[in-house]
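#struct-queue
[09:14] JT: dropping the first one here, sequence first, then the structure tokens:
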Amino acid sequence: MIQPALVDGGVIRLNPRSPLSDRLVELETELEAIFDEFKPDVCAVEKLYAHYKHPTTAILMGHARGIILLVAQRRGVRIEQFSANRIKQSVTGHGHAGKSQMQRAIASLWNLKEPPEPPDVADALAVALCCGRQIGEKRALPA
């Protein structure tokens, strides 16, 4: 299996005090710049999961996820979606790994000096790694 390479990782920070519509436009602008810079062939996203204790978070994440899918689709970038359990299983071998376990696994897999901060960066890198591994596995299959 081919091991995907880490190119970059980070967080898009939006002002939580700004109206949601303004934040979504800013998110689109930031993503357009990232897509322009890195020219991805694939956009990997986590499937939306709504925990009954945090419905507002799920709704806000749904809006942001929609912008991500919109930007990728407009550019003709292939979209791959993975469940949280599948991502965790791919990276740690355990489908219910916690945030700190994911951070340590990502740091170890890519020989990072420190676990990615905030934990959301490790989560995003884990989604990308899961996708990259899936693509690598498909390419390694005999024709």
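[09:21] JT: and here's the second one, same format:
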Amino acid sequence: MAATLDPAAGRSDIRQSDFDALLTRLGGDVDPIHEHMAHLMGGFRAGLFAGGDDLAAVQDNLDLERWFRLPKGHERRIHGHRHAGVREGAALVHALDAHRTHPDPFGVEDLLPYRSAREPECQRQAIHRRGIMRRARSKAKRPKLLAELERRYLAVF
């Protein structure tokens, strides 16, 4: 099965016919595991060979997004740690899409001018609002949040 998906194994149309033959063979089997595998393969079939041989160099979703050169939402969330926090904000988009104008790796001299940069006030406010909304969604934290908000409201009037 892996050979039918590997672009180095041949042209797309040949690999697709091999994939279809394998799918037919697995679908006709009485083994429930083979039957389940055929069902899964049939679901993925439509997108596996999209683009033919033109997209043979694209190996995964990150490569596909680099090929389109669009913002990479899920790549932004990949940071090498198990949920080390959410990186967010409008100012961050420009930093994470810097590869568009700067194809080489960033060096110290490239980053030095930005060492004292601060996030804009609107971004800080958005992060604060997001924190309130997260607390509001939590059944455990919601009563304390509502009491705090009511206290703040009454303090204004």
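[09:30] RK: nice, looked through the second one.
[09:31] RK: The longest helix spans residues 32-48.
[09:31] JT: good to know. The two ends are 70 Å apart (CA to CA).
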